[in-house]
UniProtKB/TrEMBL annotation:
Residues 1-47 form the B12-binding N-terminal domain. Keywords: Methyltransferase, Repeat, Transferase. Signal peptide: none annotated. Residues 202-550 form the AdoMet activation domain. It comes from Saccharicrinis fermentans DSM 9555 = JCM 21142. This is Methionine synthase. The keyword Metal-binding does not apply. InterPro entries: Cbl-bd_cap, Cobalamin-bd, Cobalamin-bd_sf, Met_Synthase/Corrinoid, Meth_synthase_dom, VitB12-dep_Met_synth_activ_dom, VitB12-dep_Met_synth_activ_sf. One of its GO terms (molecular function) is metal ion binding.
């Protein structure tokens, strides 16, 4: 453990990188597994605990994302903390009961999708109601220091700390459990969060245009001048076991390195196969830190290729996809999907949200429905939907790695499964543009163009900036029978399981573009709720970060 403490210190100082730490943890865990009987005997005879503290971690109810949480667990383990990981989709009651039963020192919550923010608030409230006295840490892609200060901390009397990324976790835990340093750390954080709340309360209010004005200034297309491309293949198509060899060609490695805390530009890394090429490639990294990161990125790249080869060879994952192309027209801010070309029977509709955040010079308030010809135009338009996964089969292999105390391979597998899912979505979109819809038959295979989105058409994911309402996934899944066709299910908060899954819509118009909705007004929220047939309170639950009035 003395060695692991050194590793923890070096990582905290930025002198070791995450892949090195996780590999070190693998060695430690395998050694501890051998020594466990001796350790337990010693603990029994002395009554002493050999850990620095006990941390309970969980991904909150309705959310299935856990790579970041797993990495934090490894880092804390390397710093001699006992980690109790409850997994994903964990209800508040289970989190709190386990915390009591296990007598933990800290509770850590993780989440990725926006509804998870409200779950974290609920956990904090319940901790206060039950008179908990342990600190609460929160983290995950959807969390922020401001949200923690404004929404979560006021609900609980004990320390609430936002952890920006895995590299900060051990430092925060150490401060929270320090007998001499805790008070100063907590007081400093409370002062910082109080200042954030004050700044948030006093910031210039966002100007929200009335929804009627926003609709009047929606994105305009002259539909009389546009030639709509009728899809070559209408209806639903299913791919049951797609080739990993084909999918891996479409991987965008930028996000893979980010997942491993190795942000940087590693262009050309795939061409490095010899010692001489490695020497030449490394010459462009001029600082000591940049050079060290590049060397570690190259090792990680090679580890990833070896794992991809194994995934492909041993059929560890079964990539599946379903997509559909349907007759469609817009009606206001909604997109109507018809059962057939007669366009007389509505099969479903997607309720889109329109920008309302106003500022001087803003001329257009976008909604995705702007890119589909309205019913009133008389133009026959189309829309597509898709859902892909590369997570089928992952649980068996992840469990095998964890049973073998091999966190590195388990995390590598999950991070690659995520990248394969995104790559699969990109590959499928390419084929839809070129073959199945066929509006870009001459488009060439070009990975740089894919990464930079230099092609006609868009594939926005439901629950993300252009269409932030996760609950719209239910309409998509029902339309294409996603669960039956490819085995992806939705949680109560509309997170997809397996986690390594991507779904969304296809828009083919040449002017279709990505954008972010930003803040919206209560007039649109009430209108959305009415269109969807739900209460305003429920509508607000699905888009909390878009509400301008909370």
């Amino acid at each position: 453990m003395d060695g692991m403490n050194v590793v923890g210190d070096l990582f905290g100082d930025g002198k070791m990188f995450l892949p090195q730490v996780v590999k070190t943890a693998r060695v430690m865990k395998k050694a501890v597994a051998i020594l466990q009987p001796i350790i337990e005997k010693e603990k029994a005879s002395t009554g002493a605990s050999s850990s620095n503290g006990k941390i309970l971690m969980a991904t909150v109810k309705g959310d299935v994302h856990d790579i970041g949480k797993n990495i934090v667990g490894v880092i804390l383990g390397c710093n001699n903390y006992e980690v109790i990981d409850l997994g994903v989709m964990v209800p508040t009651e289970k989190i709190l009961q386990e915390a009591i039963d296990q007598k933990v020192d800290i509770i850590g919550l993780s989440g990725l999708i926006t509804p998870s923010l409200e779950e974290m608030v609920n956990v904090a409230k319940e901790m206060k109601n039950r008179n908990f006295e342990v600190p609460l840490m929160v983290g995950g892609a959807t969390t922020s220091k401001v949200h923690t200060a404004v929404k979560i901390e006021p609900q609980y009397t004990e320390p609430v700390i936002h952890v920006k990324d895995a590299s900060k976790s051990a430092q925060v835990v150490s401060a929270l459990l320090s007998k001499t340093g805790k008070a100063a750390f907590v007081n400093k954080t409370k002062e910082e969060y109080a200042a954030l709340r004050e700044r948030n309360a006093n910031k210039r209010p966002v100007v929200i245009a009335p929804i009627s004005k926003a609709r009047e200034k929606g994105f305009k297309i002259d539909w009389s001048q546009d030639q709509i491309c009728t899809p070559n293949t209408m209806g639903i198509q299913v791919f049951d076991d797609y080739s990993i060899a084909e999918i891996r060609k479409f991987i965008d490695w930028t996000f893979f390195y980010q997942a491993w805390n190795l942000t940087g530009n590693y262009d050309g890394i795939e061409t490095v196969t010899t010692a001489q090429q490695e020497t030449e490639w490394l010459k462009k990294y001029k600082t000591e830190n940049a050079l060290a990161k590049a060397k570690e990125a190259l090792k990680l790249w090679r580890d990833a290729q070896a794992m991809l080869d194994k995934i492909e060879r041993d059929k560890m994952l079964t990539p599946k996809a379903v997509f559909g192309l349907f007759p469609a027209n817009s009606e206001g801010d909604d997109v109507i999907v018809y059962t057939d070309e007669s366009r007389t029977i509505e099969k479903t509709r997607f309720h889109q949200i329109r920008e309302q955040q106003d500022k001087p010079g803003k001329e257009t308030f976008h909604a995705l429905s702007d890119f589909i010809a309205p019913v009133s135009s008389g133009v026959k338009d189309y829309i597509g939907g898709f859902a892909v996964t590369s997570g089928i089969g992952i649980e068996k292999w992840e469990k095998a790695y964890m049973d073998d105390h091999d966190d590195f391979s388990a995390i590598m597998l999950k991070s690659l499964a995520d990248r394969l899912a995104e790559a699969f979505a990109e590959l499928l979109h390419f084929r839809v543009r070129k073959e199945f819809w066929g509006y870009a038959p001459d488009e060439d295979f070009n990975t740089d163009n894919f990464i930079r989105e230099r092609y006609r058409g868009i594939r926005p994911a439901l629950g993300y900036p252009a269409c932030p309402d996760h609950s719209e996934k239910r309409s998509l899944f029902d339309l294409m029978e996603v669960e039956k066709n490819v085995g992806i299910t939705l949680t109560e908060h509309f997170s997809m399981y397996p986690n390594a899954s991507v779904s969304g819509l296809y828009f083919a118009h040449p002017k279709a573009m990505y954008f972010g909705i930003g803040k919206i007004g209560k007039d649109q929220v009430e209108d959305l709720a009415q269109r969807k047939g739900i209460s305003t309170d429920e509508m607000e639950k699905w888009i909390p970060i878009n509400l301008s009035y909370r």
